[in-house]
Write a structure and sequence with these properties.
Elements lengths: L1 H7 L3 E6 L2 E2 L8 H10 L3 E4 L6 E2 L2 E2 H12 L8 E6 L5 E2 H12 L4 E4 L15 H7 L7 H16 L9
Parallel strand pairs: 1-6, 2-5, 3-8
Antiparallel strand pairs: 4-7
Length: 165
């Protein structure tokens, strides 16, 4: 990208997103799969025995970051890489507790070892995008999961949660 920007004078910004979640999200992400299983009364698999942490970033905060970068392109031939994240890693068990609160249902859990190739924690250093655009994530995890839970129920027609012992 840097070579292309320099050679052709096309300014480029590369963006790295950190654990994006929210409505219309990826069904293979933990929060999404956990929601489906919790509401169906199924057990969720908690890898890494719950000791992992992720930099969960609500989709609205991602969009704010992208728009801010689009409004401030580099000069001709310029190139940069920017992280867009919440910059506040949250433990997996804390995320599960927030999701349970948003859904109004306690999850049945199966604690499992770490999956091969997984990482213990992710964290976005957002200092560069903050300096460039004033980017500051606005949606805390509990609020974002509450919004997602409402969307999920509406979209999938889930009227009431299934009780889990």
């Amino acid at each position: 990208s840097q070579s292309y920007a320099t050679r052709y004078g096309l300014p480029q910004s590369g963006l790295r997103f950190f654990t994006v979640y929210g409505p219309w999200g990826r069904p293979d992400m933990a929060y999404f799969g956990f929601t489906r299983k919790i509401l169906a009364g199924e057990t969720i698999d908690v890898f890494g025995e719950g000791r992992m942490a992720r930099d969960f970033t609500y989709i609205d905060d991602i969009v704010d970051g992208v728009v801010g970068v689009l409004d401030r392109p580099p000069e001709a031939g310029g190139h940069r890489l920017l992280n867009i994240g919440d910059s506040q890693p949250v433990g997996l068990m804390e995320m599960i507790a927030a999701l349970e609160a948003a859904l109004g249902v306690r999850a049945a859990r199966r604690m499992l070892p770490m999956q091969p190739g997984d990482v213990t924690a992710t964290f976005a250093d957002v200092s560069a995008i903050q300096q460039l655009t004033g980017y500051r994530p606005q949606v805390p995890l509990a609020e974002g999961l509450r919004r997602f839970a409402g969307w999920y129920r509406d979209y999938h027609g889930v009227v009431a949660p299934a009780a889990v012992a």
